[in-house]
Amino acid sequence: VQLQASGGGLVQAGGSLRLSCAATGRTFSSYEMGWYRQAPGKERELVAFSSGTGIYYITSVKGRFTISRDNAKNLVYLQMNSLKPEDTAIYYCAAKRPGSSRYDYWGQGTLVTVSS
Questions:
Q1: The predicted structure's pLDDT at residue 70
Q2: Chunked in runs of 10, what are the mean pLDDT values of the chain (116 residues)?
Q3: Quick count: other Cβ atoms within 10 Å of Cβ 31?
Q4: Given this model, what pLDDT does residue 39 score?
Q5: 63-69: long-range contacts at Cβ-Cβ below 8 A with a sequence spacing of 24 or more?
Q6: Cα-atom radius of gyration of the chain, to the nearest Å?
Q7: Which of 1, 4, 10 is nearest to 76 (CA)?
Q8: β-sheet bridge partners, residue 20
Q9: How far apart are CA 85 and CA 104, in angstroms?
Q10: What backbone phi and psi angles, to 5 degrees, belong to 25?
Q11: Are 89 and 80 in contact (CB under 8 A)?
């Protein structure tokens, strides 16, 4: 599986961006898909994921970010609204195979910069 993330950029606080992640592979629909981010000087954190059992968001993005997927097109999105400077980070998409305990595949990352 190969993942290609895109959609990052520079936006003012309060603005919106939509990140996309394109995946190869015929079993995409069975994978848990996640979005991580890593801010300068901070550890990478899981922002949201979408799996067969549901959707998860970290508290700091609830109500502002929405993860969605189009299994027919092997795409996963992260719609980010009401962006804050603290959302500035490199965002990575990741895929976890069924039964795996960790994310197995990673995209290259896309930079999101939110100016105040």
A1: 95
A2: 96 98 87 96 97 94 97 96 98 96 96 97
A3: 26
A4: 97
A5: 67/33, 67/35, 69/33
A6: 13
A7: 4
A8: 6, 77
A9: 30
A10: 110, 145
A11: no
The DSSP result for the chain, as a single string, is: --EEEE--EEEETT--EEEEEEE-STTGGGSEEEEEEE-TTS--EEEEEEETTEEEE-GGGTTTEEEEEETTTTEEEEEE-S--GGG-EEEEEEEE-TT-SS--EE---EEEEEE-
Q: Which two tokens stand for residue 58?
A: 């970290």
Give the model's pLDDT for residue 25: 78
